[in-house]
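LAB NOTEBOOK - FOLDING QUEUE
OPERATOR: T.R.
BATCH SIZE: 2
PURPOSE: Compare the predicted structure-token outputs for two unrelated chains run back to back under identical settings.
PRIORITY: normal
REVIEWER: second-year student, initials M.K.

ITEM 1
FIELD SEQUENCE / FIELD STRUCTURE:
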Amino acid sequence: MNRRQFLTTSVQATGALCAGVCLAACTPDSADDETTAADASSAASPASLPTIGLQLYTIRSVMENDFRGAMEQVAAIGYDEVEFAGYYDRTPDEIVGLLNDLDLASPATHIPLQRIRKAPDKVIQTAKTIGHQYVVCPYLSESDRTTLDDYRSLAEDFSAFGERCTEAGLQFAYHNHDFEFVEMSGTRPYDVLLSETDPEHVKMELDLYWVIEVGQDPLDYIGQNPGRYPLCHVKDRGRDGGMTPVGNGTIDFASIFEAANFQHYFVEHDNPENPMQSIETSHRTLQTLKI
């Protein structure tokens, strides 16, 4: 039994006991079985998220001082998946061992563009060793994005690296902020990245906070680009426009998730005042969210 299983066993045992008591008290007479089954079928409850993930950048200040302890807390809170933003000098094998110990999956990792350009083969090999499915470019430095031609050049780079990822059994993706939606010569740079990259080799990780912050509707982009958005960052927006734990803000995540077709949902907060409390609040909200 691993640590994750140990942490959840007592909760499951209590739930099973309660379920047994309820079943004994509430089982209908056989004459009512057919009616009860029909009623239950017609009143099916909304679905919850299949998995809840965390972008570990959110708790970087904790991980810097206690890498394993922070990861243990993430698992104990109940997260199913994590997205890395650096490995804190751990080897790929050490990362794999820790993920296995905690029964955590890591379908994605954020890798800076400079590292992708410098050592693409190493990036791909590390991702494969750890078991990532997605290699995500998380940000563009200002020097890389001063003109639309810069974005067109980036689209070429993304397509080339994305094709290498596809050949290796991985998938490349790009994570947006707000600056990609600020028009240049009447064109949104984000639209250039979408239109001038191959959808097969370049996916998008949609940061819901940033796209809403700049006044765009995420469902417009999802609807116009089917199959392009397997990943999202679940980051809430407070009434003052700042970031806040999921559930404390104004974004209607249930409506977005119901209409979208994301495969992975990663909680994120760029600068939480109390990182562990923040991710616990966000997880609790998403755990009860119905879509």
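ITEM 2
FIELD SEQUENCE / FIELD STRUCTURE:
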Amino acid sequence: MDEEILVKEREDGIGIITLNRPQKKNALNISMRRKISEYLNRWKNSDHIGVVIITGAGNAFSSGFDLSEFQDPSIFNEIYESSAKYHRDVWHFPKPIIAGINGLAFGGGFDLAALCDLRVSSKDAAFSHPEVKFGAPPIYTPLRWIVGEGIAKDLCFTGRKMDAEKAYDIGFVNYLVEKEQVLGKSVEVAKRILESPRDTLRFTKSFMIKQTEESFEKAFSIEHDQAFKEVLFKHLKK
């Protein structure tokens, strides 16, 4: 349903995607992942949209994947395929993406924040990988590149919660603001980015992606693709 994703194309060249299931803490389901992929693929060659902001409605950025879908084995393949495509579409998007983290970012929400280029967070946000407790291996590599191996291993193995102040201190969060300022600050940062020529931004982002592309694909094919097929689905079938 389109209502699960709110999309705005601003006149100043900023595209905003709002995860809009506040009653479910913006849990990502198949249709939402497909819509995110659809808009990112539409915008990647757009002459108008130069920066994208992804944020959440209500009091959460995203609690992760919608676990209710995992109760239906008949859609496991759709879950896997939509997830594999969506993660790669975010990572390989050729323009800057800002995560406007307006609340908790757990599981797949934590992953989404890590896949973005910059992170603006509310002071009451929190980050965690609780999915490891029910058999879903966290995506480790993008997080490791941001915060280092020691902290990334700790967060991925323990599933412990990290508050926004700690996330800022270790460099995961770039800007820390009050909750009501998250979107405004994200737009401010986006406007600052757009002061540079679009081709310069695109070249810079492409260079960043190329530096990690092979490593990302090798790691993601194990941490996501193989993990889904060999570990996660096995635990769900028990």
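REVIEWER COMMENT (ITEM 2): Residues 142 and 212 are 10 Å apart (CA to CA).
FOLLOW-UP: none requested
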